[in-house]
Amino acid sequence: DAFRLAKHALAQASTSVFARHGVYEGQQFVLRRLWREDGLTPGQVAKQLGLATPTVTRAATRMEAAGLLRREPHPSDGRLVRLVLTDRGRELEQVIGPEMRVLTEQTLAGFSAGERSELIGALRRMARNLSGD
């Protein structure tokens, strides 16, 4: 129950940070992925996030309408499109990034450096346990 409560509180707080800037539920994952590697196809984003391609396509459609990204033809495969951040989508990284760092510090307030390290290790182990890696 403690894990569920912490996960829910963190998800709510994170969603709130993104929503203040017009990025809505689910879109933040696509946005963060494109901040790391711009120009991916919806299928690539879906695979990296563990989602279905139609889910990413729907999010991208809403994000395009909001001016966060645009679709461009794939340079070598005319059947595919690439998701490319607009200036607005890229600029949000400079705004949201610092807010997320503040949220991280708030989340980990009172944790010593050793406790933070242990927590990160435990969370990574949980992810490995569940992914089969």
Head-to-tail CA distance between termini: 25 Å
Strand order, main sheet: write it out: 1-2
Structural class: mainly alpha
Count the strands?
Answer: 2
Which geometry do the CA atoms define? globular
The helix fraction, in percent, is 55-70%
Would you list the SSEs in sequence order as H and E? HHHHEEHH
Strand content: 5-15%
Sequence stretches where pLDDT stays below 50 over 5 or more residues? none
What integer is the average pLDDT?
A: 93
Question: Rg, please?
Answer: 17 Å
* Count of individual helical segments: 6
**Main beta-sheet annotation:** 2 strands, antiparallel
Please tag this protein with its features.
133 residues, globular, mainly alpha
Give an account of the 3D structure.
Helices cover 67% and strands 8% of the residues. The chain is mainly α. The chain has a two-stranded antiparallel sheet. The longest helix is centred in the C-terminal third of the chain and has 21 residues, at 87-107. The mean pLDDT is 93.
Blueprint of the fold:
Blueprint (H helix, E strand, L loop, with lengths): L1 H18 L7 H10 L5 H8 L3 H13 L3 E5 L7 E5 L1 H21 L5 H19 L2
Antiparallel strand pairs: 1-2
Helix pairs in contact: 1-5, 3-4
Summarize the structure.
The chain has helices at residues 2-19, 27-36, 42-49, 53-65, 87-107, 113-131; strands spanning 69-73, 81-85.
